[in-house]
Amino acid sequence: MSSPSFTSLPPEVITLIASHLNQHDRAQCLRLSRKWSDFFTQLLWQDVHVDSRFHNSIWLGYLLHNKHRIRDLQLTDPHGTHLLALSQRGEGSLRSLTASFQDEAASFLTRMDTPGPWTTADYLSEQAANFGNTRALELILTRNWNLRSLTMDESCFRNKDGGDAFSTIMAVCPITRLERLELRFGRNPNRPDPPADAQQGPDSFVMADVVAALGDRRELGGLFGFFDVLKELVISGGHCHIDYHRLGFLLRCPNLKRIRLEDIDAIAVASLSVAMGLSCPKLSHLVWKGPPVGQDRDIAILLAASPSGWKEISLPDLKNFGTQSFASLMRRVSTTLEVLKVGDWGHTEEDDFLEFLCSARNLRRLEGLADGEFSGLQKQFTLSAYGALYGYTHVERLDLSWALGSSMEFLQLRIVEVPRPDVVHYRFGDPMALPEDLPEDLDDSLRFKVQRWIYTQLGRLTGLQELVLGVIDLDPEELSKRGFSKDTDPNSIELEEALCHVYPTFNYHTLEFSLESGLELLAGLKKLKVLDVRLTAHRIGVEELDWMHVNWPRLKTIRGLDSKREWAGKAEPGLAVKDAVDAWMADHPDGIGSYYSGIK
């Protein structure tokens, strides 16, 4: 019995294998046989970038001959784009289109090596003086009704004479299946910059203009149809502002759920906030990246823009999150919010974090900075354990229990101000000074009471899969600025002392995760897979690992388990604990929990 050939495999298997080949290798496969040629010709032309290579008439001939095979198209060269637009007859084959042009082509025929016979009739049917990038893009859009994803920048929104063509382009956008739309705005050369004072925030005249512009365009949906399946919108750029007259298209996006904003200014934030609030009732997911100087009130206005409330919010690099932003966030936190990522909490107060934990009933994920992103003085989500217990026991016995529950899957926060008389600060036998910003006047007698209070709150998160309490890794550039290489040991005492006035690289007053301190209160975390206690004064030894093996069956790893315990006393007893832990881990190479015991 002969072995099956490559081309006899199911088409989906062939496609999966071929997807790992680069374009050169795919081209080589065309030569093997007719069957291989038929298959790889289709694959070779699925993803095409029309750039300056297609000034060559031979390459251009190949492009036009195989245009019906293209599924994902990127346009950056005007000449090839113009001819492709004129030669299409409505194939409807494109799934995704990205268009961005550096210049206009004065005459695409003069830039080709040898104009081909396919150009003559179609070229003459258009007036060369008026045919530009926008007109070419308009033709391509009208002939590809099957488009799922579309990306355009400012070069697509200007006629050849410099006039604004944004409304024209949006009017011909295919709406039947378009799921994702990305608009990269640039500066409008025909509109002056707003006054300097107007750039500081969302003044009332801007909001009034936006409302008026939207009101004038309420017939747009009836004229051009609605983007009924559009779920994701990405908007970036817009130097000084995005012209509010361009926001009328949002009225055609009634089912929009996700919006991603990048590097937009205060005026654009104000305009978009008003437009989204009036036009997009189903908005539930927000990502806003920069500019980092975005003001507190700008953030607050955007957080209030969703009519039904945000389910997911990601603010990875804003530095001015403050009282107004926090107040806006808290208005819906108890009803809709499920996922929150804030890279810098800026000017919030410690009490704000406790209030958040006591209100976020539907939260599934709470994330901060990722490893390698921290630099400067970014503020993390931080809970004062001592203060939380004090408020519960002394301030009219307020109920400060967390609202977080079994729906939580990922939790990242710093826990500080846990009295720890067990921590003896020695460095190789000599006393070591603590960073000045760590409290030293806590009531040591409350050591276990404070920890048990926090364990009780964490113990209610029975769906938790990852618990991150460790100190995140610093940005390599931050290390370099302070004379350390990117390979510097994060446990380095020298690093800690160098950064003690900037950021604590080690957390001493925190949970110790020992059975003595109340670890058994976390027995319900059966789904926990990852525990992160890097650079914290934990006391996880063999006894605790045995307990975790039984009670946390899915626990795969503990980040930060390895420690010389120089923070806890003289090196010798600490190293003995380390050796015992290393031996235990060597006996459980596949994971800590009992689930991994049977894995071979």
From TrEMBL:
It comes from the Eukaryota. InterPro entries: F-box-like_dom_sf (IPR036047), F-box_dom (IPR001810), LRR_dom_sf (IPR032675). Coiled coil: none annotated. Gene3D superfamilies: 1.20.1280.50, Ribonuclease Inhibitor (3.80.10.10). Residues 3-48 form the F-box domain. This is F-box domain-containing protein. It comes from Linnemannia elongata AG-77.
